[in-house]
Amino acid sequence: MDPTAPNSGDANGGAAADATAPSNTTVTLPPLTLRDVPLLPSAAAAATDPIPNPISRHPYFHPPATFYISPGDVSLRHAFFDLASASPFPLVAYRRAGPRAGVAVDPARARAAVVTCGGLCPGLNTVLRELVVGLRELYGVRDVFGVAAGYRGFYGPDADHVRLDPAAVDDWHKKGGTVLKTTRGGFDLNKIVDGIVARGSFGFQTAVEIAQQAIDAAHVEAVSAVNGIGLVKLMGRSTGHIALHATLSSRDVDCCLIPEVDFYLEGKGGLFEFLYERIKQKGHAVVVVAEGAVK
Asked: Region Disordered: which residues (predicted)?
């Protein structure tokens, strides 16, 4: 009997009541090999009393309970399996990246370094910018350095280490290549992924691209006015995918409101207080709203 074949009878051994009803099958998977990040398990084990994630205390960003990654969450290397194979392919898993509810290192004492290595790919400067801004403004890490010229910059002169902050990387997302420069080689690291093929629905990328043009226009208007606010409403109904991706691609948006994340207007930590502080700091603000976010 094939262990992967669905049960054709009901719980009492009788005939199936409905041939069109979905059936549940219990399958035993082969052993799973977890390829862990070097030094990460030991660092986590050394932190006997993890520090609450600073994001949970952020005055404006209020993450839901499902925002943080569980320590047991993993990502499988292969998404497809042949359950009927006589010799199943060994399953390999990697620890899932993402924010944890507790951090092992006190952000006040942490020092971070960012580096670009190997060949160029689109979006490197955007990634660098968001790493610096996220470490500084979400986690409170004050010492962030950019390592120039790839891995060899780690053992180069001190001039190869540049202190970075949000002001220093403010316009990096508008530049091509990598501001930190890169070299090939210099460190024995296996190459895992060279390219990623993204699957999406037809027209989505075009909608995001056109939405960015509207955001760029709103940004120009907001910057040109005293205490200007640029407001862009994008289609999406009950989902904020277009608004979110257009915001991430633009990098000029201060606040993105989508139906999936609740928000409030007045009071401590509300939208009005955030806009007041942002305008007081920058002199302008750009807000993107998915059409279903205000219903």
From this structure: 1-28
pTM of the model: 0.62
Q: Topology of 204-294 in CATH?
A: Rossmann fold (3.40.50)
- For the chain, list the strands marked E by DSSP: 32-35, 51-52, 74-76, 91-95, 102-103, 111-115, 143-147, 161-163, 228-234, 255-257, 284-290
Return all residues near 60 (Cβ < 8 A) that are at least 6 apart. 269, 273, 274
Q: How confident is the model at residue 185 (pLDDT cuts 50, 70, 90)?
A: low
Q: Report how far residue 8's alpha carbon sits from residue 253's, in angstroms, rounded to the nearest whole number.
A: 55
In b/e form, how buried is each residue of 139-174, taking b as 16+ CB within 10 angstroms? bebebbbbbbbbbbbeeeeeebebebeeeebeebbe
pLDDT tens-digit series, residues 91-137: 888 888 889 888 888 888 999 999 998 877 778 899 999 999 999 99
Please give the Cα distance from 271 to 263 (Å, whole number).
7
